[in-house]
Specification:
mainly alpha; 4 helices; 69% helix; flat
């Protein structure tokens, strides 16, 4: 299957399916990046709640990008 065929197939996906493909591609891009893995691990292990975001602040940051 060519990249062009994949692109055509993706255009007919539902929003839910597109979200799944997006997450999968994100995973593929970062799976072998040790710097990214360390960043994720550090964030997951963060114990200082002063560094945590509320859901509202998180969504606000997403909207800025």
């Amino acid at each position: 299957m060519s990249v062009e065929q994949i692109k055509r197939e993706i255009t007919v996906l539902t929003d839910s399916e597109l979200n799944e493909v997006t997450a999968f591609l994100f995973h593929l891009r970062h799976r072998n990046d040790p710097d990214y893995q360390q960043t994720v691990e550090a964030r997951l292990n963060e114990q200082d709640k002063a560094n945590w975001l509320t859901p509202e602040k998180f969504e606000s940051k997403l909207d800025q990008d």
